[in-house]
Amino acid sequence: SWTPENMVTEAIEEIRAKVGDRRVLCALSGGVDSAVAAALVQQAIGSQLTCVFVDHGLLRKGEAEQVKNDFVKVTGVDLVVADEADRFIGALAGVTDPEQKRKIIGREFIRTFEATARDLDGERGIDFLVQGTLYPDVVESGGGEGAANIKSHHNVGGLPDDLQFTLIEPLRHMFKDEVRAVGQQLGLPEEMVWRHPFPGPGLAIRIVGEVTPERLETLRQADAIAREELTAARLDRDIWQFPVVLLADVRSVGVQGDGRTYGHPIVLRPVTSDDAMTADWARLPYEVLEKISSRITNECADINRVTVDITSKPPGTIEWE
Ligand code: XMP
């Protein structure tokens, strides 16, 4: 039977055998998979690893800092940060279509990552790229060597010809709960290990309407309140995901403080699920919902209404965009 300890030991031996004294690159997203994969590689080969974090400015409150500060402190990884929030938000100006948002964010991400990887390759000569592929992804995509996300036997699909690395996938034998156990074993921050799934395009697809710095700030604050209260009620591990959505194109009349307001609604979308393919709306206790609602309308600028989405998937999706 497996334990987190012997999974770590095995993974480390495998990585050392594969990498030897060559150099490795890993992109961190803020999520548990890339964090655990990077931490394992760090334990195996230390200073031969360089991590890259593209900060697109679309993460939730505290998440970028968690990568830049807490993760680095715990693991000791050599981290290169590309602070590109202005570039991403600039590229999203005037865009309201959800798929267009995804396309733009994907494009900017690849550009940023490629430029950073090319610099590092020139400086240090990189041979390997870490990916946080899990066992279910391997099975789903046919089970071949590095089957997820890559086209041929050794090369990473999507990267240009002059920038090809061999993949290392230290999580390819693990399920999600095993990844979390390994993360805990490695001493990673709790919030990182138990983080709910979070979409790559981040908060950009939780603002229905154009993405602006002010709206991001408002949503970030509302989302932080919802997460704080869910954690305080010890319900965060019972919930699959809890999107908090800002309806930036909708206004409704409210009465706050001295008088009439004309602000935006926030939608709470807590769901239960096993795999995100189907989902049900989570029956959160009224007291928790009440606390979240009153805090959001009190603490978030321009928000005068909080609603709860009670749609299952199907017909609704988990995200609003
Ligand atoms: P939906 O909204 O389709 O979401 O029910 C299913 C799961 O996928 C996540 N999701 C995304 N993840 N990039 C991602 O990395 C995306 O563009 C994206 N869109 C949705 C969503 O959070 C849920 O877990």
TrEMBL record:
<dbReference type="GO" id="GO:0005829">
    <property type="term" value="C:cytosol"/>
</dbReference>
<keyword id="KW-0315">Glutamine amidotransferase</keyword>
<dbReference type="GO" id="GO:0005524">
    <property type="term" value="F:ATP binding"/>
</dbReference>
<dbReference type="GO" id="GO:0003921">
    <property type="term" value="F:GMP synthase activity"/>
</dbReference>
<keyword id="KW-0436">Ligase</keyword>
<protein>
    <recommendedName>
        <fullName>GMP synthase [glutamine-hydrolyzing]</fullName>
        <ecNumber>6.3.5.2</ecNumber>
    </recommendedName>
</protein>
<keyword id="KW-0067">ATP-binding</keyword>
<comment type="pathway">
    <text>Purine metabolism; GMP biosynthesis; GMP from XMP (L-Gln route): step 1/1.</text>
</comment>
<comment type="function">
    <text>Catalyzes the synthesis of GMP from XMP.</text>
</comment>
<comment type="subunit">
    <text>Homodimer.</text>
</comment>
<feature type="binding site">
    <location>
        <begin position="29"/>
        <end position="35"/>
    </location>
    <ligand>
        <name>ATP</name>
    </ligand>
</feature>
<keyword id="KW-0547">Nucleotide-binding</keyword>
<feature type="domain" description="GMPS ATP-PPase">
    <location>
        <begin position="2"/>
        <end position="195"/>
    </location>
</feature>
<keyword id="KW-0332">GMP biosynthesis</keyword>
<keyword id="KW-0658">Purine biosynthesis</keyword>
